[in-house]
Amino acid sequence: MSWRYGRPLPIRMEIESMAGSRVWPKRVLLVSCSVLISALLVEGLLRLRQGLKYGTASTTVYRFGVDPDSGLRVPVANHDTGRIRINSRGFRSPEIAVPKPSSLVRIAFLGGSTTFCAEVSGNEATWPHLVWRGLQDSYSEVTWDYVNAGVPGYTLTECHITLKRRIKPLSPDVIIIYEATNDLSRDTRELARQMGLGPAQADQPSWLGNLSLTWFLLEKNWQIMMRQREATSTPRLQFDPRLSRGFHERLLRLVRDAQVTAPVVVLATFSHKIRRDQTPAQQLRAANTSLFYMPYMSVPGLLDAFQEYNRVIRMVAEDTGAVLVSDEEAIPGDDRHFNDSVHFTDAGAELMAGRVLKGLTASKALTKLLSEEKQGQMLSAVGPRL
Question: What is this structure's pTM?
């Protein structure tokens, strides 16, 4: 064997192999560091955006505690993100005087996240605040205040407890009720589970989703995308109008107790982004969060379900004499007015407030209340007769 083709060649190969074995770990480390830095940069930018938009960099934009009197999950008192401000009583509204002054008209709003309005730009952009402002502008001779008792996730059951434990002691004069979607989700979920079409409860973020905002958003958007796809390809729950019986009973009890608490009770039909005149693609996109929380439903099933629950709201208003705010489709089903399937943007909240103001100011119940309030103020000014 020659010197050229003998020992030198294996030695060179060994040297190159050793050099390569030292390079690869460096490359892996470099790539790993690059990926980590990129992930941290994305996380930082998302949290900056979250902070600018919602006033907090957390994966949740509001904080909850437990109300010791009612046992309900309620917003933490005095919590302020800039965008969401909670008063000392755990309501997303200004501070109120307790006991209520006799010269003041107080409005209480009952509902879930669609009344709490986390998606709008601030407390002053929520539709309850805009209703209060509209009444104050229209009846400037009257002093008004309000309590936004809407809490994300509340059904009529929690609203009823709120009425008895948290609102009744505040002596409201007007109670406005707006809820359907959380009850619809609860009413259909157990049936879907029994039929093997869905989980017993809505999906919760993974441990990594609770830790990382980036992963939380990726996880949720992936689930929404998959559920939109499944809505047109897998077996769906067939909506049965009889499912609304429980909703009817709960709403009827709530309204009757509300009427014992306040002289004026208002029921508003529920607005949602999905519309029958949209194309199938538009409907599927509009149903994004409804399908996230009710993954066993179809788009036609959701349309039928919301129509049925609004029928029940109209029926209960007629049976009890409550003021009905109808015309739920006066709020266009588009991105300008809806943040997702059911939650309003600033523009949507403004139109929602307009709906409520139109129905309330045209009602005989409010006219009677204000007439009695004016008479009471006149008697107070004159003083007792001798």
Answer: 0.79
